[in-house]
Amino acid sequence: MTGIVLLGLLGLVAVAALWLVGMYNGLVRFRNEVKNAWSQIDVQLKRRYDLIPNLIETVKGYAKHERETLEAVVQARQQAINVTDSVIDKAKAENMLSQTLRSLFALSENYPDLKANQNFLSLQEELASTENKISFARQYYNDAALKYNNKTEMFPSNVVAGMFNFERADFFEVEATEQREAPKVSFQ
Amino acid sequence: MWDLIRANRRRAAVLVVLMAALMLGIGYAVGELAAPGAGPLGLVAAFGIWLVMTLASYFSGDRILLAASRARRVEKDDHPVLWNVVEEMCIASGLSTLPEIYIIDEEAPNAFATGRSPERSAVAVTAGLLERLDRDELQGVIAHELGHINNRDILYMTMAGIMLGAVVMLADVGVRMLWFGGGRRRTSSDRGGGGQAIVMIVALVLVILAPLMAQLMYFAISRRREYLADASSALYTRYPDGLARALEKIAGNTKPLKAANRATAPMYIVNPLKVTAQGLANLTGTHPPTSERIKILRSLGGGRLSLEGYDAAFRQATGRPVGVVPRGSLNAIAAVEAREPAKDPRSHVKRVREVTDALWQLQDYAFIACACGTLLKVPPAQAGKRIPCPHCKTEHAMPDLVL
Fold first, then answer.
1. How many angstroms separate the CA atoms of B305 and B329, rounded?
2. Is B88 assigned a catalytic role?
């Protein structure tokens, strides 16, 4: 009799353990997806840092009098590179950089020679696309973060998340709706 | 999304198995019609054909299809905007490998995706598509194609298409047997008795009905896939109006797509073959009516996007009680905010120039940047010669043609 009870208890413990393992693995999978999505954003942000010096060089040749705008871009880029600790601060710095880039492209409207330069045109396409990629990567990241956060907050997976210290993921936000658009790079 | 993929896979696997069964049945029937008792032989032959077809379509179905469509592979330098849009949609869809990118040198706007898995896939667009669509619209089309790749549609569509061709071919052989083998059969069935006669009748019915059944099965599944890829596109781009506008432009085109045929037609985003009988088109068309797809996408616009929302819009637009999204996937993705349209600075002239440049680059034209800012585009016939810049008259040495 006691044997059966013991066996039953043992079975229950085994089932509970398996269930815990499954839940833990599920959480790890979601967290990895968030990390992977973040690295996608990171790749695009780095790409943007790399493109900017080229852009500055090209624009300088045509628009010497626009030092202020050019310096603002350089500064915003440096600031964005320096911020590495939190997602929220990073988002702020990157939004700042997007804004200064937008004003640089708006300014290029006044220089017809610049707008006809092949190098400038391809840089413009690259930066516009990088901007799009950042926003699509951010979209993907936020979806992954939402899924992961839901898992860490909802019963019963929140119990496992609490036990093993699964922290919430921060969202990569944009401040105003107007900022969601790619920089306005209109000509012709 | 995994539920959706799983349901899609299961359905496709069922289709492939049904097609195989149908083919084996036809093989048997054709054998019996050729000579009583030869059914098993026909069965073996049909199985052999099925095996070869399956293997060929699995291992190189994508290459065959791309070659048949005269698609040419491009790199980033050939068409940066197309390349960038595919990269953008790749990121939005979470696809880990960038598909190979192809351009088809045709005026009619259209696009398709093929491949075996998300790791080995390709998208092809026509030159006419690149000329007509702005960036938002192109994003919609590419996202639709990546939707096919992500939903694991591409392999099964290729395989099912090739098997449909085989079923039709075999049944055709059976019908020929009927005409030419008639006399012989009659004398032998006298000896065989009633059992033989029943086998004959079943074989006859099978040979006549099989191609129709295969076609209906194939059509039903490919239509649902189009809707699902539309839903995926809306979610990836967050801008359903882009795809809606693109579909309007593609459907409004009157030029024929020369590279398309009956086997490749179901792969395209909009049916490239002009169907004359509208009623028949609705029953057996591989594509749902484009107007219906546009109506659904338009009714999504603006608000929040989700699979559930697409399903509801589908039911409202078509009046059908059952939606297209598998029940388990309705809530798989949280609703997301739609975005505003983006501005595309490229004029029609510039888009045409981009495509022409891409096609010229594929034809070994040399592109030489002059110091005065002019870009010289020189045909391969001028290789090795000296050419002056038309603006500043600086002479440029043309590089030799590398073959």
1. 14
2. no
